[in-house]
Amino acid sequence: MTYLLTEVPPMPTFIKAGIGKFQPGKQHFYRTFHLFDFIFVKEGTLYIEEKGIQYTLHRGDYLILVPGRLHGGPKPCQVKTEFYWAHFSFPHDFHLSDRQEVDWSTILKKRNTFLTPDVFQLALQQQGSFRRRDQAMALFETLLQPNASNDPAERMRQQLYFFDFLIHVQQESLQVPSSAQQVAHKTMKYVQEHALDEPFLVKNMAAELLYHPDYITRSMKRVTGMTPNQYMTHHRLTLAKEMLQQGEYHLQAVAQECGFTDVSYFSRVFKQREGVTPGEYRRLSGKK
């Protein structure tokens, strides 16, 4: 299967959306377009061709047409057909990948710091069928509502509505098995309850949870994008930030209370993660 990949933020730019209605005998005209065109069939069957590849889209199916490629209808609709469409663009470059599988471990490319945002990979299956079709339709109807509005605030929110829809597409594309979610949730709960254990060993946790260590690691990567050890560090740093914001504790005390036996190591890891030292973080939080 083919995935459309790009980095966000900045977010995709919504251009315009609407509903197409074809009576039997009508077909999509051919063109080479400079924008992405998201096609989502509401009712009936739509025939679309892109770059010589023909697609038959039924109710609940979608296809993302790529800029610069000739597309059109290779044959007329045989029944009354309605479809949602949306034109959009990406601020960043994009590429198409024929990976066998993309999972959540690839989505978070860079975690935020105190000064920089999270960086994500937006991964959209180019062609698919919505499992939660009614929810997808409801999201698209919400996207269309501001079309008739002259309220600038509502028109601005249309950008947000579109990104909500794309997140839904990504969630459908990267469905995580429920078994992996269960293992990951148990792992995160265990980590939170044993955040101050030293040393923290995955094999000990695996023995208590009755799962193989490799299976725990794979499940965590699929659901959170982090290994158990990375999540432990993430949780300890979250506790440290809460203490630093209170402004009442010496750095040595913060490090020890949050499971770091060495304050220098704590400071180094904190700066790698947040982009500032613990002392700078405390000052930026308004504490002396």
TrEMBL record:
Record has DNA-binding as a keyword: yes
Keywords: DNA-binding, Transcription, Transcription regulation
A single MF term (Gene Ontology): sequence-specific DNA binding
Top-level taxon of the source organism: Bacteria
InterPro entries: Homeodomain-like_sf (IPR009057), HTH-like (IPR037923), HTH_AraC (IPR018060), HTH_AraC-typ_CS (IPR018062), Tscrpt_reg_AraC-type_HTH (IPR020449)
Record has Transferase as a keyword: no
A Pfam family hit: HTH_18
Residue ranges annotated for the HTH araC/xylS-type domain, each copy included: 185-284
Descriptive protein name: AraC-type DNA-binding protein
